[in-house]
TrEMBL record:
Annotated source species: Xanthoceras sorbifolium
Keyword Hydrolase: yes
CDD domains linked: Lipase_3
UniProt domain Fungal lipase-type: residue ranges: 201-349
Superkingdom in the source lineage: Eukaryota
Name recorded for this polypeptide: Fungal lipase-type domain-containing protein
Keywords assigned by UniProt, alphabetized: Hydrolase
Amino acid sequence: MACDKGFSSHYMLLKPEEVKLFDLFHILFSSDIEKRKFVDSSEGTEESFRRRWLIFISVVAQKFLLFVAKPLSWIGSGIEFMLNLLSVNRNLGVLLLNLLRGRIIMPDKTSAKFVSFIGNLDKRVELDSSFKYGDGRYFATLSMMASKTAYENRAYVETTVRDHWKMEYLGFYDYWNDYQDKSTTQAFLLRDKNDDHDTIVVSFRGTEPFDADAWCSDFDISWYEIKGIGKIHGGFMKALGLQKNTGWPKELPTNTYKQEDNDNRPAPPEPLAYYAIREMLIKELSKNDGAKYILTGHSLGGALAILFAAVAILHEEKLLVERLEGVYTYGQPRVGDEKFGEFMEKKLMEENGVR
């Protein structure tokens, strides 16, 4: 795969959209993986049956998720609608009474009162007032709530940040996945500022229960090995902004992306997460020499948070590395191998003592 060798000469990329049934089962009995069109690898063979079995499971899971994506989304939307229908009408009894009266209140999916499935499991909105800036648990508590809030819609996030937390809302964004060819990544930014500190929080949304695209990113066991850093989970890299044609260039082409066959294609309709957030952070941090920032997220969001820091280090983004206050993740899946973990710990401790 010539397009990716610019940043990784050792890789294994799965392409479930190109799988054929015979090839899929054949991989279980043959170590010769270079003949399988749905596997693009720098290695011609894979002797370990366990690893071939994991490839098989990963591809089957992704194919199944893609097949049930729409009905899964409909089921999720239906459950969320019913939960919010009960909520806006106060309870089941009032809902039935309103139904008999013909005065039933219908939930608005775009309103600040509409709560996601995950949000219905934990309806806390307010920050814990017992933790103040300077307390070692303050940022951890703020990050936890930001990670939970990232599952909600734009209006809910904005209202929560501004009206409940009394902080500056910097925006909620959808980001493009170049491999899934759609916007599958979400994140929001806020600024927690007073006389004592100026801290920007970047919160990535995790895996929603009924979002097949997010689950595909989780199940995609593609990997890339970056020299001196280690092996990194390919599905998470794709969600953060890895490109098919150029991998992780420090700067993006302005208008078009060059493909292997030398054809041009337009830039994606939505920005790529890493690059867009990087530019926003540089802009905001440059306004105040004392400003810092935090990366956080739950589940998939946690993986994207730590991977954002890794790519910033890879690109030698001095401002971002020096101003990183911390990375707080919850329920984070494994992002890379042991070498990657050691690299991140060493680099963050060297620069600013972040653990």
